[in-house]
Amino acid sequence: xxxxKESLEEIDEDIDLExxxxxxxxxxxxxxxxSVKELVTLTDVNPILLKKALEDLKNRYDSSGISIVQRxxxxxxxxxxxxxxxxxxxxxxxxxxxxxxxxxxxIIAYKQPIKQSVV
Length: 119
Known about the structure:
Blueprint: H1 5-30, E1 34-35, H2 36-43, H3 47-60, E2 66-71, E3 74-79, H4 84-90, H5 99-111
Antiparallel strand pairs: 1-3, 2-3
Helix pairs in contact: 1-3, 1-5
């Protein structure tokens, strides 16, 4: 069976999309700056593809209320700068979820679909 150039491109696009989703889930649940090394460990995405996924996410959220922020080699998902004042009125300083709930949600987001018995 011969694989066409189009098939290879579709496979590459699927891999890129999956990598971007993994990175997005990790940044979303972390709520803090993560190093590239931490993201590699969490997502199991190779560093070169991880950096591409981060840039793709940054572009994807460019005209959104959410932004992907980079400081040196650290990355974070945050509220877009123009909405920080509005959102800070809603922030109470306590998380909607406990640390244990956040970890469980991160596992579900990373390994989906997943059986309840595994969680």
